[in-house]
Amino acid sequence: MIDYQMKKLRMLGKRYARATAMAHNEALNAFAKEFGFVHWKALNDATKGDWHPNDEDVARAEAFVREAGAKTGPVVPSPDTLFFKEPKWEEGELCGHAYKIGDCSGDVVVTGKGWDLRVPEAPFKAPIVEIDERHSKTSPVKDSRFLAKLIEIAQVRSTRIRAQMAVDWPRRSTKADLDGVARHPLRGGDAANWYCHSCDAQITGSQVAENYWHCPNCGTHPLNIHAEPFDDQFPGEPVQTPDTAQRENPEVRIVEPRHTLHLDEETVSTLIRCALLEDATSVNERLGAMRAEISLLDGEEVWITFDEMLWPEEKEPKSALAVAAKLGLELEQEISQFSEPFAWPELGSMTVETAEFTAALLKAYERYGVIKR
What we know:
This protein is of the alpha+beta class.
């Protein structure tokens, strides 16, 4: 029974080491300190005398492992494992402000009234704060102290997510060996040097394992990390590890989260061209609508330039005029000479059906010109 209890403690030590990317002996020493010993050897020596771990000690060790160094509030572990998936969303309150916290593809997301906080899965990438512009003056995340506490809550949850990843991944993926060799957690393969195919950085096995397989330089995801450089002739520069590794300062953005219609030249031109196609009554006129030059002048006037061979000079684009009026814009039009898309432009003025026009076009080119494929 005593041997079983010690084996159980050693197994828990291995799980704790994987969850925290800690060396196995360091994890065992952490256990020993929980039981009042200075290190694991002292605990092991004590078992040869009067002290032996009992069921309560094992339960205490299990709780220590379960927490994995992070506490985010009440959670319910799975009965089948010491590590468990974080619930999708939890509710909380900070300084009188309610929030919800969850995760999305490894990132931690915290959302409140008129604001969102995202803490990236990459350990050192900057948190991103988005504030609804309607709440830009009153949002609590504008208070640096509130934001710092919020980020601390989110980072605790992020630590737990990474602990779960470490348990699921091979041990060598989160802890390089003495030669710096690390194993890719998703596609496998061992190497002491890895390469980011996003920014061409060179990364050591120890660096990429510590950063949970995100590039320490650009923060890209593990699937962009490869054992071979993208270009053998230009493998990129080695990533420099900072003296103090910590997350970048948060990036705060004021955003408009609602669907927004930008009445710029591109949008106006699209609507006017669509209306011109409604006005077209022949193949030529449809071609003229598609090839017309449409400009927005000073946000007040739409100017349409038609091809004189495709759009009749006297034809009034009624649908386009109606669309311009809805947009509160004036509409002016002119006729100019373009380079026709096809010879014999009169063919398109005699039919409404594109298939009929195509047949006539092919026949004319076969008789009087050349067709190349």
